[in-house]
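Posting for a labmate who doesn't have an account.
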Amino acid sequence: MTKHEEDEIQVLGSPAGGKRSVRNRWLWGIVVLLLVAVACIVYWWCLPDRNNRPVGEKVFPNWEKNILQLDKKQQPLTDSATLARVSLLADTVNDVPMQLFVLEGTDVRLRIGLPSVQDTTLLMALPAADVRKDNLGIVGDFVLDGRRYGNGKRKEGYGALLQGQLFLGVSASDTVMNYCAERQGSFFRQYPLVIGGKIWPNRLKGKSLRRAVARKKDDPRVYVVLSRQRESLYDFSEALADYGMLDALYLPGGDAYAFCRTPQEILWLGTSQEHVYPNTSYLVFHK
């Protein structure tokens, strides 16, 4: 082989190797771009303020922090320094007529068993947690005076009770429940309707007479709200949010046994005891 032939072979082999090198660089570039795109998608998906994340998910840690510290930013719904009383209001929002009971200075507790209307210290009694019809067990996490009776987190909303005060929130963890249990407090789960002033999405269908316990921003009073006609849960929640409720928790409605005591009379909010079981729980507001 002559020197000229050797040079010729070298010249012929060089372009092929160059093409492979360019092609490899393109392939690696595409791989890098794909990895960057995947990383961006994952980061975007994990953002706490992503618009299509269920409203309220980003406030879980704040609610737990507030209840754990009894933070004044999340005011308790009761104020024992105020003379206990109940005021009645009526209003219509978005074509949803509502009856509102505003409780001030009350001591609120959770109890199991039918409350006595003869107890003159009791201002209002309302069903709290749901009860299963098959085994009569309490639906969802439930703690009464430090003792646990039920478990389950299908309903993310909660009512937490400590030292006669009621806190409303939403969380799928056990943090608040355990905190209440350790301090001989009480805890129950229900559907959240409004959290942080925004409607919480629920899957319940159909229409019924609705009830809720709620609070307004910078207002220590308790609001118990009843619809005066059959409403979908969404329409009821929307009316609560538009009325100015910061947080609202669903309570069993319809004609379920409940009453309110005014200075003049006893108002029956529901008289049916058809679904009153040994494990039926009530929110009771005392003077």
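Reply:
Got it, the structure tokens are right above this. Residues 1-14, 47-63, 70-81 have pLDDT under 50 and may be disordered.
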